[in-house]
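Re: folding output
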Amino acid sequence: MKVSKKILALALAGFMTVPFFAGCSSDGGDAQDGGNSGNSSADGGEASSAGGTFKIGGIGPLTGDAASYGISVKQGAQVAVDEINAAGGVNGMTLELLFEDDECNEEKSVSAYNKLMDSKVNAILGAVTSGCSIAVSEESVNDGILQITPSGSAMDCTKNPNSFRICFTDPLQGKLMAQYISEQGLKSPAIIYDVASDYSKGIHDAFVEQASTLGLTIAADESFTGGDVDFKTQLTKIKSSGADCLFLPIYYTEVGYISEQAATVGVELPYFGCDGWDGVINQLGGNTANIEGAIFLTPFVANSSNPKVTAFVDAYNKAYNATPDQFAADAYDGVYVIKALLETTGGDVSNEALIDAMTKISVDGATGSMSFTVDGEPNKSAMVAVIENGEYVGK
């Protein structure tokens, strides 16, 4: 199916409550490392204008089903840290990344946060997933420390004044994809979503609401609970529903299972998804025959000709012999956001100074240019990726 950038731009224009057209990136930026002086809080790390270390505490899954996300975030952040330090740091200060595995478990995420706070980190980059990010935010707001989630997209991830995000929100993704599907001339989408996932349910609910306003008919609305691996029942219902496309607001692991089982059941529909799809090609071992032409919303595609993207991709590949995904890009830009903060505060690494500076910075990164609202949301633009010949192709 032909992808239209004009259509997505129109959708963005209709739904953005903040100016997402700045072309922002989930991770990245051009700020220089900076900042240092005193304690960021009673629990924070120490840094001074004369030098020292600014500690960034990362939280995400390094093991388990969502490990791809956490590993990408950790590695993308480390690339940025290494670049900044190699360029001389900021105000004589170097950056250090301390990263803890939360296994995509909320209780373990809080434990990871407490361990990082014991290590006197100056800011939190995480958590990676929405549920864990929300759990951590309930702790971080009490400590007053800056928290930036690279990829937590649920609305509640930014409900506290110390919390910000790099990625799109779930409701915005749902609205944009409903608009996009409608503009493609499709009328009857079927849905499979994870009822136990904040991410999936948030996108699903916004999609259904927007579909109604656009005159779309939800042909089948099927759910599952995270951890399920058999989707034949849902797919059989969809096969007889009259659906003309399949919307999957879920993570890449389940997308892989569904696409393989759809072929056995005989469901042959165009696929649409959101940013949780990133990683599905690896999940399928590179065999994308069943999802060829699938389209998903994303802030980053590694084969872009944008010089900032190519520079990041080259650095990441050199460090890890791999191609970065959007989660790596989100984290990369997240570190550069912290760098911009440190420059803006002029060496003040207190919690208050860092949080206040978030609405004063603008970062031009691997996923574009971005600024931030007082509500913790990024001003940024979106793009779609198509799966073609075993690759993600930006459109």
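--- second protein (sequence, then structure) ---
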Amino acid sequence: MLKEGIKEEIDAAIEEAVFLEKAPDKNALLKHDLGFDSLSLVELIAGFEERFVIQFDESDLDPQNLETVDDIYQLITRYVEEPGE
């Protein structure tokens, strides 16, 4: 499960990237609902790597697997949560 502080940081980065006034719904589609294109999605992911001091495995960055805000939550959870949490 995603820690609340981490979720808030993810939401804030998404809000900033696409100029939202409130946190996105976890089921929002990144491209269709929020307006991300390929470049802005790459920039978002790179920003998460910097923000959380992590490096995503290339196999985790398939755009077909990153369609919703919740997909982003799940991806980051795999890298920042401690085992067993």
